[in-house]
Amino acid sequence: MDKIHHKYLLPNYIPTILFTSIYIIIFFQHLCVPVAGASPHVYTPTETIFLYCGSSGNITSQDGTRTWIGDIKSEYVQSQNNASTPAKASTQPSGGGDKTPYMWARLSRSQFSYTFRLTPGQKFIRLYFYDTSYQNLDRSKAFFSVTAGNFTLLRNFSTSHAADDSHTIFKEFCVNVQENQNLNITFSPSQEYNDSYAFINGIEIVSMPPGLYNTTVTGETEVPFLGQAPGVQFSLSNSNALEMVYRVNVGGNYISAGDDTSMYRTWSDDVSYLTEAYPSALPVNLSFQPTFSMIHNYSAPVEVYQTARTMGTNTTVNEKYWLTWEFPVDSAFTYLVRLHFCEFQPEITVIGSRVFEINIANQTAEKHADVIGWGGGSGVPVYMDYAVMMGSKANQKKQNLSIALHPAPAYMTNYPDAILNGVEIFKVDSSGSLAGPNPDPQTTPTTVAPPTSGNNRSNNRKIIIAVVVCVIQ
Ligand SMILES: *[C@@H]1O[C@H](CO)[C@@H](O)[C@H](O)[C@H]1NC(C)=O
Ligand SMILES: *[C@@H]1O[C@H](CO)[C@@H](O)[C@H](O)[C@H]1NC(C)=O
Ligand SMILES: *[C@@H]1O[C@H](CO)[C@@H](O)[C@H](O)[C@H]1NC(C)=O
Ligand SMILES: *[C@@H]1O[C@H](CO)[C@@H](O)[C@H](O)[C@H]1NC(C)=O
Ligand SMILES: *[C@@H]1O[C@H](CO)[C@@H](O)[C@H](O)[C@H]1NC(C)=O
Ligand SMILES: *[C@@H]1O[C@H](CO)[C@@H](O)[C@H](O)[C@H]1NC(C)=O
Ligand SMILES: *[C@@H]1O[C@H](CO)[C@@H](O)[C@H](O)[C@H]1NC(C)=O
Ligand SMILES: *[C@@H]1O[C@H](CO)[C@@H](O)[C@H](O)[C@H]1NC(C)=O
Ligand SMILES: *[C@@H]1O[C@H](CO)[C@@H](O)[C@H](O)[C@H]1NC(C)=O
Ligand SMILES: *[C@@H]1O[C@H](CO)[C@@H](O)[C@H](O)[C@H]1NC(C)=O
Ligand SMILES: *[C@@H]1O[C@H](CO)[C@@H](O)[C@H](O)[C@H]1NC(C)=O
Ligand SMILES: *[C@@H]1O[C@H](CO)[C@@H](O)[C@H](O)[C@H]1NC(C)=O
User: Fold this and answer.
1) pLDDT in the model for residue 189
2) How many Å lie between the centroid of ligand 5 and the Cα of residue 194?
3) Are residues 35 and 68 in the same domain?
4) Which ligand is nearest to the CA of 74?
């Protein structure tokens, strides 16, 4: 991935310097002065549970925003079940990232559960796994299912298949809890293997604001279902569970859990997903304060709306290409795609300034996207939701879900250009299951593991420094 990213991007930044140098210099300054904690904490979750499985002690995350509580003697562990045992990891994740909560795990060769007493409503459930050997068990024998209430979150799940280079895996789900119902999260070793076992390092539960992902900006719960007959809507309700597969701060930096709007979501940068970006530009204005008149101010961190990717300033070039991102996803599921937008460039002020076409998975999502029109003015963040089915395709476990932008015909737009600030992609459960097949060896994992933020920042810094040096020369 990194190789692709350098191949595509490093040369492409250089032609854009002339036009965007001012933005890039501001961007550079932003990287030099870390903005940790800059996002105001604008939402207060009813419940925040950070459970450190298998540990008797507590541990605070590196950035100090979360204290993981050891689960030994915890009220959540089911005592009537078969014994599950705490186990210490034999190694620690490589890289400079946060090592919590990976030192300990709870492990068993038979089923075990946690029961959480929660208020009713939508919850984020985040599961943290560290793929290493515990108690001298063979790590390749860990095959298991995870259910939460009625939903199957993972099935025949293998951490050694799913882990990235740091051997850590992080999965985020959204599940609704009904009134007077406990939420049971159950880990069951796969029965088709004789000596399989299940384990978990950390469970995080955070209450979601009502309607965060099941209700659109207009208050409706139905979103356009692309690729179906015209007018067909996809209705998303509380009886659906979601799995977050990508959450991206387009044109900006990685945003850590502690810098989110108190929901502990992480946002990756978009560079690994760009496939056609010649010669895109990165507008950024960190002194710009968005006006949240259309959406809640906790929808995404302010940084998402202060940075963007556009097509560039050469209109001849813009008219000839589609600015494209590709996201590998499991086949045979419907996906909810949320696109975040905000116009903050001084040239883009009125309806018709920048009008563009949006295709998602090769289907037309918008013929005439006009962010100023949607927001009722410049500087107003908006998001748009779409649903798209990625059918089964000739035994392909994964397919690319593409997002592609292209200027509207010249007579409709002052600037033949397009803009995107953020993307969230969720898998929607199919008959109560979110489980996909294990990835083939050597393919990219679907999950956006929280990257070691150190690495991520230094990658960006390398690119930006190269650009700034050119400007000075
Ligand atoms: C861990 O934190 C919990 C909740 O704050 C507290 O009850 C418990 O005593 C702490 N455990 C240790 C070992 O400090
Ligand atoms: C305990 O383990 C046995 C055998 O592994 C299994 O049949 C049984 O369902 C388990 N009990 C519970 C409560 O998980
Ligand atoms: C789970 O299934 C049971 C019975 O099948 C049903 O009564 C219950 O409402 C379901 N719960 C949820 C959260 O869908
Ligand atoms: C959760 O598990 C406990 C113990 O296994 C069981 O008594 C309870 O009915 C379960 N609750 C739900 C909602 O499945
Ligand atoms: C499981 O173990 C039994 C007895 O040791 C053996 O007969 C059987 O072939 C094994 N099954 C698999 C799938 O390895
Ligand atoms: C969306 O979620 C909110 C909060 O959980 C709930 O009040 C509302 O009924 C949900 N909408 C649908 C269509 O399920
Ligand atoms: C950045 O935003 C601030 C506040 O809205 C504005 O005054 C300034 O002109 C903007 N800078 C650029 C380069 O657009
Ligand atoms: C976010 O919006 C809420 C009300 O919608 C308001 O009370 C709060 O002050 C806002 N926070 C910030 C940081 O703008
Ligand atoms: C735009 O790109 C075309 C093709 O690469 C080039 O011929 C033209 O000079 C460029 N225009 C400007 C204003 O840079
Ligand atoms: C979209 O189009 C491209 C190029 O024609 C093709 O490779 C890809 O499979 C298509 N994707 C879907 C989801 O149909
Ligand atoms: C997705 O797109 C990337 C970049 O074009 C390509 O390398 C990869 O093979 C594609 N994956 C699938 C499943 O088509
Ligand atoms: C479980 O995953 C392994 C590894 O990907 C695969 O070989 C096997 O066929 C899967 N089993 C089932 C029942 O899906």
Assistant:
1) 95
2) 6
3) no
4) 1
Say if residue 198 is in the same domain as residue 228. no
What's the pLDDT at 82?
Answer: 58
State whether the beta carbon of 285 lies less than 6 angstroms from ligand 7. Answer: yes
pLDDT band at 1 (very low <50, low <70, confident <90, very high): very low
What residue owns the CA closest to ligand 2's atom 13?
81
Q: Which has more confidence, 391 or 78?
A: 391
State the pLDDT at residue 46. 92
- Average pLDDT of the chain, as a whole number: 83
Same domain, 30 and 89: no
Ligand 8 binding pocket includes 42 (Cβ within 6 Å) = yes
- Element (H or E) spanning 17, and its range? helix 2-32
pLDDT of the residue at 8: 29
Give the tens place of pLDDT for each residue, 289-323. Answer: 999 999 999 999 999 999 999 999 899 999 999 99
Residue 177 sits in the same domain as residue 304: no
Closest C-alpha to ligand 12, atom 7: 438
Going by C-alpha positions, the residue among 174, 203, 167, 170 that lies closest to residue 51 is 203
Ligand 7 atom, smallest distance to 23 CA: 13
Q: Which two tokens stand for residue 1?
A: 């991935």
Which of residues 163, 179, 207 is at a domain's end? Answer: 207
Domain hosting 343: range is: 16-42+221-468
Whether the Cβ atoms of residue 281 and residue 390 lie closer than 8 Å to each other: no
Instruction: Tell me how far the alpha carbon of residue 397 lies from the centroid of ligand 5, in angstroms.
Output: 28
Distance 158 CA to ligand 12 centre (A): 9
The verdict on residue 212 lying in a domain is: no
Nearest of 52, 208, 77, 59 to residue 127 by alpha carbon:
52
Q: Give the chain's count of helices (H) and strands (E).
A: 6, 26
Among 85, 107, 108, 110, say which to mutate for ligand 2: greatest number of ligand atoms within 8 Å of CB.
110
Q: Is 145 found in the same domain as 87?
A: yes
Sign of CA dihedral 118, 246, 169, 69: negative
* pLDDT tens-digit series, residues 361-374: 999 999 999 999 99
The atom of ligand 1 lying closest to the CA of 67 is: 2
CATH of the domain at 120: 2.60.120.430
Q: Count of domains in the chain?
A: 2
| Residue 181 in this model has a pLDDT that exceeds 90 | no
Dihedral pair phi/psi, residue 353, rounded to 5°: -65, -50
Report yes or no on 444 lying in a domain.
yes
